[in-house]
Write a structure and sequence with these properties.
Blueprint: H1 13-38, H2 55-59, H3 65-76, H4 80-95, H5 98-110, H6 114-127, H7 132-135, H8 138-145, H9 150-156, H10 161-167, H11 170-180, H12 197-221, H13 229-234, E1 240-241, H14 259-272, E2 283-284, H15 286-302, E3 306-311, E4 317-322, E5 326-331, E6 336-340, E7 346-350, E8 357-362, E9 367-371, E10 375-380, E11 385-391, E12 397-402, E13 406-411, E14 415-420, E15 425-430, E16 436-442, E17 447-452, E18 457-461, E19 467-471, E20 489-495, H16 498-503, H17 509-519, E21 557-558, H18 568-577, E22 583-588, E23 593-597, E24 602-607, E25 614-619, E26 623-628, E27 633-637, E28 643-647, E29 654-659, E30 663-668, E31 672-677
Parallel strand pairs: 15-21
Antiparallel strand pairs: 1-2, 3-31, 4-5, 5-6, 6-7, 8-9, 9-10, 10-11, 12-13, 13-14, 14-15, 16-17, 17-18, 18-19, 20-22, 22-23, 23-24, 25-26, 26-27, 27-28, 29-30, 30-31
Helix pairs in contact: 1-4, 11-12, 11-15
């Protein structure tokens, strides 16, 4: 080859020529495709995109900062020419449409060896994950999060700021409270102490309205750009009011996993809790309500409590009741004492009975006491004034119970007297042959339950005054029932098993609010007005007449049974309410506690554990508390019947017990009241 055939080029000419050839090929390709990638709005098509292929999401995908820094450091180690070639490859792939991208990927993967394919697989494992919270409409994201348990929600709140705003939202945690508070969750088996169901429903309506507004906003903005869950979470709805919950002001976290996130959340939460709320109204997020309730339930299960002892009575304590602020006790020393349950301070002593006080009950406006001196007294316990005295029993008053309009009293004269505060009438129920130790009105079904020393429990119709059923002992036919108690029955208590109540869709929602008072002795509807505290002298017990006979305004009239010509509407309403009667708990001096189905009269469960007679009984949705002659207090699981805890400390038989969502109280013949607090400080 001659030297003339050899072309000598200056250094760098080949590189420049190669760059020009590459530019001649790449420039038209990039010019044609890059604008479409950067400005997808200008290339609208008639079809709709899913969230994975929408051009807006493709362009706005956020790069991982750590990966990009690592990529840049590796690129800097290469020669400049190699950097340029790799950049050209990236540019071509970035500008290429979907079909061309797939073609490029197929060609590259076909040339990869096994180690390279394994490396690609490890990268795809992370890259293929999709942040559905940012991609989906907010109402769908909320719906998905509502299926998580509390622990998973706390972990979700640690993923990112967007996830935290959604996972901490009231919409999600209100649903969590609705599933667990005052009932056992069908999924996890956990239940949390009482929160009033009416207030849950009221807040639920606000949240449903808010979600409907979010859905409408998303539908109106779907064409130009979707409403992100971040925007939805920032428009947070109304928060749970402190005065509407029975929870304390503690803001405990749900689990240890949330300790770190809570510290970073405090500044944002202070803003969230004051949004859309009238000025001067303190609020709490539903997450804090759930958290506090969970801590209380954990304390109950693990037996963690603080003990406070109340001393002052000079004789045995026969009855007690408490709420969130006061404890009231009645004793054989003839006095009733009102205590501050938080500090243990004695607020006042109510004197008036001349013999031992065997029964008491109070609500927001009054206190009713029954004594062995045969009288029932109605007090304004906030001032200590005795407002009224009811007489009529021929022997000591052993038990009493009232609802919004009726007061029932059981006596050592074997009778039950039912006083109607609304129309100032009364009637007497006869059937027991010995002391009536307990009475309890179940308002939704218009039924009264009574327990007696004659070993029987009776169910009475408050409209017809008939005895509908006799549980245990010698039944109405005189035949002994092997399922029944063999000793004197001391307590009877209607209880609502929530899992069965949920299956009864016929029960009105309003009945749920009435039922709450039968689970917690400190929840009663307040009775108001002078009509509920009538004055007068002694009252004569009269036989039921065919029609009501009214006497003076200061006396009660005898109320007749319902007429056979009762309207069909009344009968229909009564049948509807009695379609689902509650279960009843009974305790006896035969050392047992029994659970009965009031609809069938069958004993469904018997609890054994006390070695002497059971005097006191209390229950809620989850627990049964019993006090016995063996000086012990026991806590039972109401579903399984298993004994959870046994508390000792009294030096004499335990005569009465009380129960709330976070406290347990026991009164004894030793004149001492012991209050166990399971609440959060």
């Amino acid at each position: 080859m001659s030297g003339s055939d050899i072309s000598c080029s200056p250094p760098g000419v080949d590189g420049e020529r190669q760059d020009k050839n590459v530019a001649a090929v790449l420039t038209p390709f990039l010019t044609r495709h890059i604008p479409q990638r950067l400005y997808p709005e200008s290339y609208k098509e008639s079809r709709n995109f899913c969230y994975r292929h929408h051009p807006a999401f493709k362009c706005k995908r956020q790069a991982d900062e750590t990966d990009m820094e690592q990529l840049q450091s590796q690129l800097d180690t290469l020669p400049q020419q190699d950097q340029q070639v790799i950049t050209h490859v990236w540019s071509i792939f970035s500008a290429a449409p979907a079909q061309e991208r797939n073609l490029i990927l197929k060609g590259i993967l076909s040339q990869c060896c096994s180690p390279q394919l394994s490396y690609v697989s490890s990268l795809l494992r992370e890259l293929i994950r999709i942040d559905f919270v940012s991609a989906l409409p907010p109402e769908i994201s909320y719906k998905i999060l509502c299926y998580l348990d509390a622990s998973s929600l706390c972990k979700a709140a640690q993923v990112s700021k967007n996830w935290r705003k959604l996972a901490d939202d009231d919409t999600v945690w209100h649903r969590m409270c609705e599933q667990h508070i005052d009932r056992k969750c069908t999924k996890c088996g956990w239940g949390l102490p009482l929160l009033e169901r009416r207030r849950l429903r009221e807040c639920k309506k606000d949240i449903e309205k808010r979600m409907e507004n979010l859905s409408q906003q998303h539908a109106s903005t779907h064409g130009s750009g979707s409403l992100t869950p971040t925007d939805a979470a920032s428009a947070n709805g109304k928060k749970r009011s402190i005065d509407e919950s029975n929870a304390s002001d503690s803001e405990e976290t749900v689990s240890e996993d949330t300790q770190t996130s809570k510290r970073t959340r405090n500044s944002d939460m202070s803003t969230l809790t004051t949004q859309n709320v009238p000025a001067g109204r303190l609020t709490r997020p539903w997450k804090d309500v759930y958290s506090e309730r969970l801590k209380v339930e954990q304390n109950w299960r693990r037996g963690r409590y603080k003990l406070k002892v109340f001393n002052g009575h000079t004789d045995g304590i026969m009855c007690l009741q408490f709420d969130h602020s006061v404890l009231i006790t009645g004793s054989y020393d003839t006095t009733v004492r009102v205590w501050d349950i938080e500090t243990g301070k004695l607020l006042r002593i109510l004197s008036g009975h001349v013999r031992g006080v065997r029964a008491l009950m109070f609500d927001d406006s009054k206190l009713v006491t029954g004594s062995m001196d045969r009288t029932i007294r109605i007090w304004n316990y906030k001032t200590g004034e005795c407002v009224s005295t009811l007489r009529g029993h021929a022997d000591g008053v052993l038990s009493l119970h009232f609802d919004a309009t009726l007061l029932a009293s059981g006596s050592a004269d074997s009778t039950i007297r039912v006083w109607n505060f609304k129309d100032k009438s009364f009637f007497t129920l006869r059937g027991h042959t010995d002391w009536v130790n307990a009475v309890n009105i179940h308002s939704p079904s218009r039924i009264l339950f009574s327990a007696s020393d004659d070993t029987t429990v009776r169910m009475w119709d408050l409209d017809t005054h008939e005895c509908l059923r006799v549980f245990n002992g010698a039944g109405m036919s005189g035949v002994s029932n092997d399922q029944g108690h063999f000793g004197q029955v001391q307590c009877v208590l209607p209880v609502i098993l929530r899992d069965e109540e949920e299956d009864d869709n016929e029960v009105a929602e309003d009945d749920d609010d009435v039922n709450e008072q039968y689970h917690h002795h400190h929840h009663y509807q307040p009775l108001s007005g002078n009509q509920l505290v009538p004055e007068g002298g002694e009252y004569r017990e009269q036989e039921p007449a065919l029609s009501s006979t009214h006497v003076s305004d200061d006396e009660f009239s005898v109320h007749s049974p319902s007429s056979p010509s009762m309207s069909r509407a009344v009968i229909r309403d009564r049948n509807r309410r009695r379609r689902k009667l509650p279960h009843i708990l009974t305790s006896s001096l035969d050392n047992t506690i029994k659970l009965w189905d009031a609809n069938t009269g069958e004993c469904t469960k018997t609890l054994f554990g006390h070695v002497e007679g059971v005097w006191g009984l209390a229950a809620d949705t989850f627990r049964i508390v019993s006090g016995a002659h063996d000086r012990l207090v026991k806590v039972w699981d109401i579903q399984s019947g298993r004994c959870l805890h046994t508390f000792s400390g009294h030096s004499a038989p335990v005569a009465c017990v009380g129960l709330s969502d976070s406290r347990l109280a026991s009164g004894s013949d030793d004149g001492e009241v012991r209050v166990y607090s399971f609440g959060v400080e």
